[in-house]
Design a protein that fits this description.
By secondary structure, the protein is of the alpha+beta class. The protein has a domain of about 55 residues. Helices cover about 20% and strands about 15% of the residues. It has 1 helix and 3 strands; from the N terminus they run βββα. It has a 3-stranded antiparallel β-sheet, with helices on one face. Strand 1 and strand 2 form a beta hairpin.
Length: about 90
């Protein structure tokens, strides 16, 4: 059995159905949120009015992308271990 971080029961624990962690960038804009995963082949974007809506939308988009193009879209080498946000001043 697979459990998420909240301890909820997930899919059966076969290798084929194992959940793969995906890092997601969430951006807050004046008119809502945009989110996109790191380390997937192809372009996947989610949008929503709230943080919860954008996460649900991007997760749905990721699942649709994997179902459409197969699990090979998850096989990116080298894998992204961590993601950071940095800010730098630029001449405008």
């Amino acid at each position: 059995m697979v459990y998420d971080r909240k301890g909820d029961r997930g899919m059966m624990g076969t290798e084929e159905n194992m959940l793969k962690p995906v890092k997601i960038i969430v951006e807050k804009h004046p008119d809502g949120y945009v989110a996109y995963p790191l380390g997937l082949k192809g372009i996947v974007v989610g949008e929503g009015d709230t943080y919860e809506e954008v996460l649900a939308d991007v997760k749905s988009a990721i699942n649709f992308h994997v179902e459409t193009f197969d699990k090979q879209v998850l096989e990116v080498a080298p894998p992204i271990l961590e993601a950071f946000v940095a800010e730098a001043g630029v001449v405008a």
